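Structure tokens please, single chain.
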Amino acid sequence: MANLQDICRLFSEVMRFIYLRTYTIMAHFTHIIFDLDGTLTDNTQGIINSLKYSLEKMHIDDYPENLLDGFIGPPLQWGFSQLFGLNERDTKLAVEYFREYYSESGWHQNVPYDGVLEMIAELDHLGKRMYIATSKLEKYALKIMQHFEMDRYIAQLKGADYNGKKATKPQIISSLITSQQLTSTKEIVMIGDTLFDIEGGKENGLSTIAVGYGFGKEEELKNADPDYFVEDVEELFDILSA
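Here you go.
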């Protein structure tokens, strides 16, 4: 006789099958916009090391290390001002120190999530148009994309500009849509691991998918009411390949 654990596992698999069948029938995305950090690649080590370097240069050392996790996803300016309370001048200086380390070492302390490279190759084969919209400084994001040869499949990448004036996710997504001469529609989907990605997609009139394997908090992501929430790259591919 099956025990309770086996029954729960079976129930979970049945519900996952129903979920995927329901949403893959409903969804058909012609254009796909990915976030980068926490969605396609895991750059935790590079970002954390760059932050530690920056904070050391700013003579800031009294902070809980888990506070640094809040920097992964949002613009750097937001992190230094909101999480550390720095004024505009000090925020600008902290960002400069961060980029000093990141430009040399941090950008390549990075790895794609399991299955990501295979996923985008297959989506390209299926005729999907793919883009990246990231709050990372654009020149570093381009380096990462090219390093992992994602540029073979990504039609365009848009990142933050150097002075941070166009660094919010809604602005970056809007700039990408304008550059590609696209019309905002639910057939375009924004995919990301943070609240900023979901809000950015919604503000631009796009469909949204929140991924649970990145750096965002599951409860916060679900409260943002994305169109879909996925636990792993396999589930994401199932929806995008419809």
